[in-house]
Amino acid sequence: MSQNLFSEELNAFVDEWKDKPGNLIMVLHRVQQEIGYISREAADEVSKRLGIPLAKIWGVVTFYHFFKLNKPGKYNIQVCLGTACYLKGGDIIIEELEKQKGLTVGGLTEDGKFSLEAVRCVGCCGLAPVMTIAGEVFGKVTKDQVAGVLDKFA
Amino acid sequence: MAFKNYILVCGGTACESSKSDQIYKNLIEEAKNQGVADQVQVVKTGCFGFCEQGPIVKVLPEDSFYVQVKPEDAKEIISEHVIKGREITRLQYGHHVRKAYEEVEDIQFYKKQKRVVLRNCGKIDPENIDEYIACDGYKALEKALFEMSEDDIINELKIAGLRGRGGAGFPTWMKWNFTKQAEGDVKYVVCNADEGDPGAYMDRSTLEGDPHSVLEAMTICGKAIGAHQGFIYIRAEYPLAIHRLEVAMKQAREYGLLGKDILGSGFDYDIEIRLGAGAFVCGEETALLQSIEGHRGMPQPRPPFPAVKGLWGKPTVINNVETWANIPAIIVNGGAWFASIGTEDSHGTKVFALTGKICNSGLVEVPMGTTLREIVFDIGGGIANGKKFKAVQTGGPSGGVITEENLDTPIDFGSLMKIGSMMGSGGMIVMDEDDCIVDVAKFYLDFTVDESCGKCAPCRIGGKTLNALLGKITEGKASDEDVAQMRQIALAMQKGSLCALGQTAPNPVLSTLKYFPEEYEAHIRDKKCPSGKCKRLISYSIDPTKCIGCTACARKCPVGAISGELKKPHSINTQVCIKCGVCKETCKFSAISVK
Fold first, then answer.
1. Interface mutation target, options A16, A23, A121, chain B, most CBs of B under 10 Å
2. CATH number of domain containing A132
3. Best to test chain B binding among A56, A61, A83, A141 (most B CBs inside 10 Å)
4. How far away is chain A from the Cα of B140, in angstroms, using its nearest Cα?
5. Pick among 1.25.40.10, 3.30.390.30, 3.40.30.10, 3.40.50.1860: CATH of B5-110
6. Considering the domain boundaries, does residue A137 fall inside one?
7. What is the DSSP string of B97-118?
């Protein structure tokens, strides 16, 4: 595997953590931060660099919700389904996204623009129900507002 | 140099989500433009707790409490308040309901609160160590390093009677004492900041608003048990809290409060951050340690407890964020002071994230022994939109519901257990008459089934089966035998699961069965969902006496299930209807009802 798969910074990070105990999860976080998900190639590279079997890496990546196996869309949409948002209609937002963009949870639009994730508690329950698009938070979202919010990212 | 005014802008996640960062920048910019940059200091603080009214801006010394501030209000705050000394009435809390409050403490939301854990949140700039030190910060560490022996520190916690705030309520001093006495050349201190309970954000706000309090407490623990390395295991979903911890650690190292030879005492101690990756089970201490070691977060059988055999097999103290944040205050003010707050069974305060169908959502800290009624109705302001109170859920997916009849229960570890719920980490979710209790139980079980690590059969198989039976109930396909089977499975899970996740997963089901038997019966026998939430059990109909035939609903219906002539009552074809509810929302004459 070529060294260019990872940027210089990422390589430096891997070197820094290489000999620390319990480094795997920290390295995977850094990889996902750069590439957006954990691709098979990236996992191979981590395996080689850290001397950890690929099977073990795959075991860890699939165990934790935070690690993604598929490339996210240009704009990743997160709809909160924490308890407060669920009670205030987080599921209705997901239905509306499906209606408007044909998005299902874990899916991607055909043009690769939007991907949809259901998440547990964004942490602003006072604004429930909450959705975030590319990191921007939208609170007290109603069904009718969904289209307008999406248009901002057209 | 003293400033004429200090403007505190909330920098918690909820307020930042509503553009408080822009308010902060605009205030600085406006102060400069209007030539008063040398008269005001703008500070970004931690969470004020009153998230419902955010973003919040407080101006000192007048103590003006401005709510729902917008970035464009910055200009007026500078020109009116700072320059002309006039408070801006339209931004003050409560101006439209009654006269503006004179003191912040008089606001109903804050009146019954007592801030120990959140003592510095909303008061200091969490990214400035000098402000923490000015508020007695690191005084406890100094005392612990130079005036107290290891046993003195542990004894102070014993007098305080501090119990772990992560949910189980185990006495903190005992944990520390076991670890101190455990044999081992290397010992570790771990902070559990993997706050995974949906709808709870106490720990995040504490770390965002006052990160040094946790660092200080962990260092004190290091001295007490003989550890030189601490780890903070924090959710990767909390970027702001991680950032503030990193800043705080860097500043503490620069000040000689972390690292080699702390304050010249000869004691070495440092802290590292380790990121979680979104697995709820990692809040369980043995699973958390597995995760720090870089493995799948699978719980391990106990004993041995982490105090004997923890991180990398070494004796380890694990406490959660809120427990840590209490400790500097206990060391500075003394254990007796802490023990004087709260009830016989539980000392001190508890922070709750009050959310759901409540008027004042937010972060509240109350003395133990406060009743649920005081929290929900006095602090929380009651149910939003004039609806009727149904239940309050504490303890998240491990807890249970509390109904009207038990609202006067004083909150402490023991009393909540007695009424079939638990303290948990501090999520408090209020439900109103529109919420279906079976649906809520299923929501929690969906969560625990999804989060089960799969290691032990009672949790892995029991949870799935229990959830399938609940699903049958919400679809109107269940019988009384199914309920009997549910109880049996719940018992097996409680008795046979390896860790607390599986043992407590049936709690939401059992407690809702106990307090709302009639609602389960309605689903099972009458095939009806009284609150109209379970789609399979409801149908929409049009009242012909109210319908004027405006055709609005028929035009909106996505599946063309509504028919009728103009100006004549319409009707719904229930065979075609997908129960989306668009018609009911559209109708201006309340002619459409759900049954």
1. A121
2. 3.40.30.10
3. A83
4. 31
5. 3.40.30.10
6. yes
7. TSSPPSSGGGSHHHHT---STT
Rounded CA-CA distance A104/A110 in Å is 12
**Cα–Cα distance between B316 and B312 in angstroms, integer?**
9
User: What count of residues does chain B have?
Assistant: 595
Does A109 reside within a domain?
yes
Length of chain A: 154
Which residues face A79 on adjacent strands? A118, A131
Residues of B with Cβ-Cβ distance to A121 under 8 angstroms: 197-201, 237
Q: What is the mean pLDDT of chain B?
A: 93
- What's the rounded Cα separation, in Å, for the pair A66 and A46? 17
Locate the domains of chain B by residue range: 5-110, 129-338, 349-432, 437-524, 539-594
φ and ψ at A115, to 5 degrees?
-125, 155
Tokens of B81: 């308040």
Question: What's domain B539-594's architecture?
Answer: 2-Layer Sandwich (3.30)
Residues of B with CB below 8 A from A126's CB? 14, 51-52, 54, 355, 361-362
DSSP sequence for chain A: --GGGS-HHHHHHHHHHTTSTT-HHHHHHHHHHHHSS--HHHHHHHHHHHT--HHHHHHHHHHSTTS-SS---SEEEEEE-SHHHHHTTHHHHHHHHHHHH---TT-B-TTS-EEEEEES--S-GGG-S-EEETTEEE-S--GGGHHHHHHTT-
Same domain, A51 and A100: no
The answer to whether the Cβ–Cβ distance between A84 and B293 falls below 8 Å is no
First to last CA, chain A: 37
What's residue B1's pLDDT?
Answer: 56
* Domain co-membership, A132 together with A80: yes
For residue A23, being part of any structural domain is answered with: yes
Q: Looking at A25-39, A117-131, B471-485, which range is the least confident one?
A: A117-131
Has residue A33 got a pLDDT over 90? yes
Domain spanning B129-338, CATH architecture:
3-Layer(aba) Sandwich (3.40)
Same-domain check for residues A126 and A89: yes
The values of phi and psi at residue B279, to 5°, are -125, 115
Does A65 sit within 8 Å of B278, measured CB to CB? yes
Cα–Cα dist B561/B563, whole Å: 7
Task: Please tell me the CATH code under which domain B349-432 is placed.
Answer: 3.10.20.600
Which chain A residues are within 8 Å of B392, Cβ to Cβ?
Answer: none
pLDDT on residue B585: 84
Cross-strand partners of B402: B392
Q: Which pair of tokens denotes residue A129?
A: 């129900």
CATH class of B437-524: mainly alpha
Highest mean pLDDT among A62-76, B315-329, B526-540: B315-329
pLDDT tens digit sequence for B117-171:
999 999 999 999 999 999 999 999 999 999 999 999 999 999 999 999 988 899 9
Joined together, the tokens standing for residue B467 give 């959830």
pLDDT, tens digit, 9 for 90 and up, residues B245-302: 999 999 999 999 999 999 999 999 999 999 999 899 999 999 999 999 999 999 999 9
Contacts of A129 in chain B (CB under 8 A): none
- The answer to whether the CB atoms of B355 and A21 lie below 8 A apart is no
pLDDT of B98 strictly over 50: no
Claim to verify: residue A27 and residue A80 sit in the same structural domain: no
Residues A50, A96: one domain?
no
**A56 and A79 share a domain?**
no
A80: containing domain: 75-151
